[in-house]
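ok so I'm stuck.
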Amino acid sequence: MLESLTGFYQLWIQLETHYIGSRFPGGKIPCQVQEGRYCRQFFLPRGEIGSEELARAITDYIRMFDHLLKVYFNHLDDCQARPQWNKNTGPIFPGKEPFYRISLSLREELR
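replied:
not stuck anymore, here's the structure
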């Protein structure tokens, strides 16, 4: 279970880096995985942001993370191989539709 969870965290980091990494210094999102935990640092956007807007942004992030985590574990048995990574298109799971859906879901959420 811990290995599968770590696999999801690594995929999550790759997806975030692919889709929003350019918004961070050096393209590196401030996060780490250790002992079955995922830690992520958030930064406030430039300019003023209200507390309700900030709460909504954090809530949306957690909802998206939770949704994709559930998709990942619901289809874990469907995929035995680890994804290959294409820097232009993101994860490649030949013949593994569920993981393709993870990428598409994240892409839609980030639009």
